[in-house]
Specification:
The radius of gyration is 22 Å and the shape is globular. It is mostly helical and 504 residues long. The chain contains 19 helices and no strands. The protein has helices spanning 13-46, 49-64, 73-79, 84-116, 122-137, 140-148, 152-175, 181-202, 212-245, 248-261, 263-282, 287-324, 332-342, 346-357, 361-383, 388-413, 418-443, 452-474, 476-489.
Length: 504
């Protein structure tokens, strides 16, 4: 394995290095966002809600066992990046064996789940996705190697190519009449190509060392694994539970809405989290800077995510009407409810990264178990109606309340004040609500009020202009800081991301 470069936390060094990588991952996020919008439009034209429902049911089950592919070894391996040559072999073999076990579990369960959901077609879809599980596990160690080396420019390029390739294949197969299989087959194809590319780049050693490392890895990774299982159950449980009570069409409307509503959080928070955790690990010896970096990252994340989520809710009805007529009218309310709720979820990703970087894996598992219990109760109660809109309302309400409470508990535990945590949400939410609400009101006035195209255009242009203006006035420091970093670093990109404050 190529040795990981030494990265110090010398004042100014890590901070300057981190900002450049955020630019690369932000560029990846924006590129993926553009590709995702185009592919989603194409797929909504080519497929019917039942196709989305079948794939959503299959994917929800497969992703629940997805954490088995790494067994939490990637986080443990990152924490031991200085000795990655020693820890990589047990991490690889543990992940591969877990991936094969996961594949067998899915293949065995698929026929029974197909009968339970009254959807026999999902059995074949689940089989394709099951084969992709151990293939995806092959990428765990080389991905961690590149992250430990802070090669986030490389990872951003790989991530963009992976996403674009998968979306292109999905659209092509949908056009060929593959139905729900159009979603599943590209997952396997792209996972195979990604594994080959990453291994050629990272070339980690697989020489088995001391057998005792397997036991230590299982002990350290067990709590991480449990947390990931709980998180996966929460992220996929809504579709799985709704499928027990609703038709495939209603499940498809909900899954379609979720794919749209979750994009800002998944892309911004997912990209940031990939970078944030290694940065926080490097700051383990300086807890005040570690906490300050986490709060700084959370502020930036909320600043970017909130207006996008609010704007999605505002344009959902005119945009779907403009593009698809009445075909996806049933997805309007779910998109609106989920978009508004998920606007409050981003900070929880940062809080989770801080909790893991501190090594409090067991506490993280406890927090996630409590959140899962609340989530299942909320989703189960709302799904009894069999309607996508009611489930979306309940899930949106959950994300608006529970993740912020979790974030408050984590940040307070590590020294942040309640004012610090509440301040992460207050101004961005107030400004985004005022900007998008005003833009929506303006769009209803004048001759363009009944035209979906002009409604979308007015909401987009006026909303962005108002948010930028209000943010520059009411959040001047954060606005200037974010703008300066982005504009200043596109010409001088670095290798990792997240602003890390220097010591005074």
């Amino acid at each position: 394995m190529t040795p990981a470069p030494t990265v110090t936390s010398k004042p100014g060094t890590l901070g300057r290095t981190t900002v450049g990588g955020v630019v690369w991952l932000l560029a990846q996020t924006l590129a993926n966002r553009g590709v995702g919008v185009v592919s989603q439009i194409a797929l909504a034209w080519l497929l019917i809600p039942a196709d989305f429902g079948q794939f959503g049911l299959a994917l929800s089950i497969v992703l629940v066992v997805g954490p088995l592919t790494s067994f939490g070894v990637d986080d443990v391996l990152l924490q031991r990046s200085a000795r990655s040559r020693v820890w990589a072999p047990p991490a690889f073999w543990t992940g591969l064996i877990a991936g094969l076990v996961s594949m067998m579990l899915v293949l065995i369960a698929a026929p029974f789940l197909g009968e339970a959901y009254r959807a026999p077609r999902i059995v074949g879809v689940m089989a394709v996705l099951a084969v992709a599980i151990p293939v995806a596990s092959l990428s765990t160690v080389p991905m961690v190697t590149l992250r430990a080396q802070l090669r986030f420019k490389t990872l951003a390029c790989i991530g963009t190519a992976e996403f674009a390739g998968q979306q292109a294949l999905t659209v092509a197969l949908a056009a060929a009449g593959m139905g729900a299989y159009a979603f599943a087959i590209p997952v396997l194809m792209v996972a195979t190509i990604k594994a080959v590319v990453l291994w050629r780049m990272a070339r980690p050693s697989l020489k088995v060392g001391r057998l005792g490392l397997f036991r230590l890895l299982a002990q350290r990774g067990g709590s991480v694994f449990l947390s990931r299982i709980l998180i996966a159950l929460r992220h996929q449980g809504d579709v799985a539970i709704l499928g027990l009570f609703a038709t495939q069409v209603q499940v498809g409307l909900y899954f379609f809405a979720l794919r749209i509503a979750a994009q800002p959080v998944q892309m911004f928070a997912g990209s940031l989290n990939m970078v944030l955790f290694p940065a926080l690990v490097h700051l383990s010896g300086d807890r005040p800077r570690q906490l300050a970096a986490s709060l700084n990252a959370a502020r930036t994340l909320v600043f970017l995510i909130t207006p996008i989520c609010f704007m999605q809710a505002a344009v959902a009805e005119p945009l779907l009407t403009l593009l698809f007529g009445a075909k996806w009218a049933g997805a309007v309310l779910p998109i609106q409810f989920l978009s508004l709720g998920l606007a409050f979820d981003g900070v929880a990703w940062v809080a989770g990264a801080l909790l893991t970087a501190r090594g409090h894996f067991r506490l993280g598992a406890i927090y996630n178990a409590v959140m899962l219990a609340i989530f299942v109760t909320v989703v189960l109660t709302s799904s009894l109606s069999g309607r996508a809109a009611y489930a979306a309302l309940a899930v949106g309400g959950f994300y608006a309340v529970v993740p912020p409470a979790y974030s408050w508990l984590v940040f307070r535990r590590y020294g942040a004040s309640s004012r610090d945590v509440l301040g992460l949400y207050f101004r961005p939410t107030l400004i985004a609500g005022a900007a998008v609400g005003t833009a929506w009101a303006v769009s209803r006035l004048g001759p363009w009020g009944a035209d979906p195209f002009w409604t979308c255009a007015v909401v987009g242009l006026v909303g962005v202009a108002l948010y930028a203006g209000l943010a520059r006035w009411l959040m001047a420091d954060l606005f200037a800081q974010t703008l300066t970093r982005l504009l200043g670093r596109f010409s001088r990109p670095g290798r990792i991301a997240v602003a890390v404050p220097d010591r005074p």
